[in-house]
Write a structure and sequence with these properties.
alpha+beta; Alpha-Beta Plaits; 3 domains; 5-stranded antiparallel sheet; 4-stranded antiparallel sheet; 13 strands; elongated
Length: 488
């Protein structure tokens, strides 16, 4: 194989590839040998069909299949040998081909620009650590304690009231007749919450232990026995216990019920929990600082085809006149996103950053936990949408790159209070909102006479183009459709 690289203009290149007819003939002979053992033709023993007969029977299909494979393999090799990373799919122009002829073709490709990432070590970034006041931790623990139901037995002479726990057995009837599921044992109701049947709680106020009480209610619309809906039912209740609410004592025993070793350990865990609630949002501010500095890095000769593709993504849903009006703005956005993506990718490759399948699986597991009861639906979604998994892989890859950049950057650690963190996040949200409104101005659709204005749903924007950890491999466009050789 002979390869000649010709620079056309900027990042545009033509790669001329020549493969002599003897080599092509060798590929064809190997293919005929491969199919010979599986081809069954009348009058010939299996595996003994002459090549000339195979050519007459399968010649066009075999040649097409062989040439497709040769084009793919040699195009990939030509690009890799010459260290050319294509920005998009290369185009193949066949100049000479055919059985008994040399194969000559030209690969027209736009090359990704060379990216220098050494300057990323000079980036400056703020890293926030929220110092949690012990009073905040104590306040959170007190709130948790209030949500814990804690009741103690009341005396037999005690009459129940709101917020008490009443435990009872019951037997119900409608018009004196029993029905399916009309009995209950050890039913527990916290009075005042009205969680059983509407109006049931009120009728248990004032009951005592071992007392029998008749409760009359109207069965609700969601009652399982549909023929009884909206009918009056009488519940014969036998009260087995009345319990009064008791404040939970915040001590080591309480801490253990929440999975902590003791009260001090619980305070540490709650303090970390409060800190983590701010961490993700504050880390996003740090990430934005990094990306804004990357956007300012110099990177000449961005591939035009990538810019055009990005503009198409950004302008989805826009009308022709809006597209013309916002052309410069869209182009600037596209350039920023592509430049950022290329720089991050180059940094990831230089630092050998990779994403393992275990990391992808772990992220999907997190989504399972966030959607309890819908695990099957989430699993099926990813099975049916491989691009969604690529999206997860790309997000993990980007986060790992950002973390590595932070390690090499000049980090300014700032210890702030919870109140300061809330103020910073509020200001950042207001800033982002203004930026979002500015970016989405073009989505406002006015009709010609300006009588009414329709607001379109804002399109999500990201500070950088999504990147993928996978090494880009050139895809070769088939020169023509070919029929697969049938092995029968």
């Amino acid at each position: 194989m002979k390869v000649t690289v010709e620079n056309k203009k900027g990042l545009e290149k033509d790669i001329k590839v020549f493969i002599d007819k003897k080599t092509i003939s060798g590929y064809l002979e190997a293919k005929y040998e491969e199919i010979r053992k599986d081809v069954v033709l009348k009058g010939f023993r299996p595996g003994k069909v002459p090549t000339e007969i195979l050519k007459r029977q399968f010649g066009k299909a075999v040649y097409g299949e062989v040439i497709d494979k040769v084009l793919k393999d040699t195009t990939t090799k030509a690009l890799e040998d010459n260290k050319i990373k294509p920005a998009g799919q290369p185009k193949i122009d066949l100049k000479s081909f055919g059985e008994g002829k040399d194969l000559e073709y030209i690969i027209s490709v736009t090359e990704l620009p060379k990216v220098e990432v050494a300057s990323l070590k000079n980036l400056k970034v703020d890293e926030y650590v929220v110092k949690i006041n012990p009073k905040e931790t104590d306040k959170r623990i007190e709130q948790i304690a209030k949500t814990q139901n804690n009741f103690k037995d009341a005396d037999e002479s005690y009459a129940s009231k709101n917020e008490d726990l009443v435990i009872f057995d019951y037997k119900a009837s409608v018009n004196g007749k029993e029905f399916k599921g009309n009995e209950g044992k050890g039913t527990q109701l916290v009075l005042g919450k009205d969680l059983f049947i509407k109006g049931f709680d009120k009728q248990l106020i004032g009951v005592k232990k071992n007392e029998n009480k008749k409760v009359e209610v109207t069965l609700p619309d969601n009652f399982p026995e549909k023929e009884l809906v909206n009918k009056k039912a009488i519940f014969e209740c036998n009260v087995t216990a009345v319990k009064k609410p008791e404040d939970v004592k915040i001590n080591d025993d309480f801490a253990k019920t929440l999975g902590a070793k003791d009260l001090n350990n619980l305070k540490e865990l709650i303090s970390k929990q409060i800190n983590d609630e701010f961490k993700n949002s504050l880390d996003m501010i740090s990430k934005k600082q990094i990306l804004e500095q990357i956007e300012k890095q110099k990177l000449e000769n961005l591939p035009k085809n990538l810019i055009e593709q990005e503009i198409k993504i950004l302008s989805q849903g826009m009308k022709e006149d809006e597209l013309k009006k916002n052309k410069n703005s869209l182009e600037n956005q596209a350039i920023k996103r592509i430049k950022t993506g290329l720089i991050l990718n180059a940094f990831g490759e230089k630092n050998n950053i990779k994403v393992s399948q275990d990391e992808v699986n772990s992220e999907i597991e997190k989504q399972f936990k966030m959607m309890p009861g819908q695990e099957k639906m989430v699993k099926e979604y990813y099975e049916q949408n491989p691009s969604a998994i690529d999206g997860i892989r790309g997000s993990i890859y980007e986060e790992k790159i950002i973390e590595q950049i932070k390690k090499d950057a000049k980090v300014n650690k700032k210890e702030i209070t919870k109140e300061e963190a809330e103020k910073i996040l509020k200001e950042e949200n207001e800033k982002n909102l203004k930026e979002q409104e500015k970016l989405n101005k073009h989505t406002h659709d006015h009709d010609h006479d300006h009588k009414e204005e329709k607001k379109s749903k804002p399109k999500k924007t990201t500070s950088s183009k999504k990147i993928s950890p996978k090494k880009a491999k050139p895809a070769v466009k088939k020169s023509k459709s070919t029929k697969k050789v049938s092995k029968k």
